[in-house]
Amino acid sequence: MTRALLSVSDKNGLVPFAQKLVELGYELVSTGGTHKVLEAAGLNVIAIDDVTDFPEMLDGRVKTLHPRVHAGLLARRDLPEHMATLAEFNITPIDMVVVNLYPFKETIQKSGVTEAEAIENIDIGGPSMLRSAAKNFASVLPIVDPTDYDVVIEKLQTNQVDQVFRKSLAAKVFQHTAAYDALIADYLTVSEFPKNLTLPYEKFDDMRYGENPHQKAAAYTTALSESYSVLNADILHGKQLSYNNIRDADAALRIIAEFEETTVVTVKHMNPAGIGQGENLEEAWDKAFAADDISIFGGIVALNRQVDAVTAEKMHGIFLEIIIAPSFTPEAFEILSAKKNLRLLTLPFTNTISQNLEVTSVLGGVVIQERDLMGESEANFEVVSKAQPTAQQLRAMIFAQKVVKHVKSNAIVVARDGQTLGVGAGQPNRIDSVVYAIQKAVNKTGFSEAVLASDAFFPMDDSVAYAADHDIKAIVEPGGSIKDKDSIAKADELGVVLVFSGTRHFKH
């Protein structure tokens, strides 16, 4: 007689699975609520306390933590001394463990849940049984995922339960219990940067490929779902998101979260191509498109208002990969969904992103940091030039600073109030970024109102000189260089407004 121990929180599919186990000759042992469900289904089930000769106690905190359970799981069938020990103590081997764990994640996601309630939903016996069974997978089948019930039955019925399959189930157990413990650790941890970093992620999807076709890739979500995430967006139309789509869309969502005003953000290769604001969405789109009508080709568009038909018609005429918005009017959806490969996504937009830490992989490890959450305010600005900024220039500086923090360093943004005009990103020296951004901006409508923002200080006065020579009349940069006085002197010489923001916004 082979024996299976079943103790599950998620009872979906449990009874049909148990019935088939009985048909295959398994003797069933169970605990608590699982025992009641199986017994109510007319199955013969041995109660766990009949196995342990000990009652469940402490409100169910202790029921399977017993040598008669764990010896039955851990005994090696190929070692005579192990089997002799079982016989000596009249312990029956357990050949299968079917366990899924207390719903800790679901509990802590409930509104108003207390710490005491969360702690009571930390499973102890379940992980212990799973780990014992998984360690002894050569003899014990450990089953943690209800979606595996059918394949387990099929393999048992056809005698195809080999060591490869057993090992795969064991690996799934340790992945599951590790993620479960990581979530508990995260919930209890008060240190922002603990000694041991545990990051529970759950697979979202396998990608067709990564950045390039020869690279394999997959996407994972955080264990506690974030509604403001491209991975949790509703795909209303279009095919599966690619690796690059996800990265670009994430960048667009980070950028547009900076703005409460009606805003359109276009993104290419994780950098903003153009950003526009307006009294309505059409005006915001017109400004974003005019900001860079070349780079937007094949790009991503994020809009923080419902997409209307007028704006949809304008976007329809351009090749775009993804449009993300809170919603689409029926007319707008009909217009845009006519394009087979255009992906239309919706999610609830917000100006507050709850995920405050960022993790980046490096060879041999990760680095982790707080997100750049520093806001922009005139109160933090220091006017260091003789020339004084106008109110319009100050508004443009605030806008440009919100953008520059999302541009790869060395980052320069030329903008007027509510519209980017030129972006210089990722150049190995700052003056090249200045040159590129101004060249992109100089012939655009509104350039006469432009200010220039830099993510970091100017190491010398050449950037100020170039900007002034090309009719930039106001500059905002963090300050902090040992040669700040040279930039200030150059600004005064050329009559340029120079403002120090006091905040660096490097983005590597």
TrEMBL record:
Keywords: Hydrolase, Multifunctional enzyme, Purine biosynthesis, Transferase. One of its GO terms (biological process) is 'de novo' IMP biosynthetic process. It catalyses: (6R)-10-formyltetrahydrofolate + 5-amino-1-(5-phospho-beta-D-ribosyl)imidazole-4-carboxamide = 5-formamido-1-(5-phospho-D-ribosyl)imidazole-4-carboxamide + (6S)-5,6,7,8-tetrahydrofolate; IMP + H2O = 5-formamido-1-(5-phospho-D-ribosyl)imidazole-4-carboxamide. GO terms for cellular component: cytosol. Pathway: Purine metabolism; IMP biosynthesis via de novo pathway; IMP from 5-formamido-1-(5-phospho-D-ribosyl)imidazole-4-carboxamide: step 1/1; Purine metabolism; IMP biosynthesis via de novo pathway; 5-formamido-1-(5-phospho-D-ribosyl)imidazole-4-carboxamide from 5-amino-1-(5-phospho-D-ribosyl)imidazole-4-carboxamide (10-formyl THF route): step 1/1. GO terms for molecular function: IMP cyclohydrolase activity; phosphoribosylaminoimidazolecarboxamide formyltransferase activity. InterPro entries: AICAR_Tfase_dup_dom_sf, Cytidine_deaminase-like, MGS-like_dom, MGS-like_dom_sf, PurH-like. Its EC number is 2.1.2.3, 3.5.4.10. HAMAP family: PurH (MF_00139). Belongs to the PurH family. This is Bifunctional purine biosynthesis protein PurH. It comes from Leuconostoc gasicomitatum. The gene is purH.
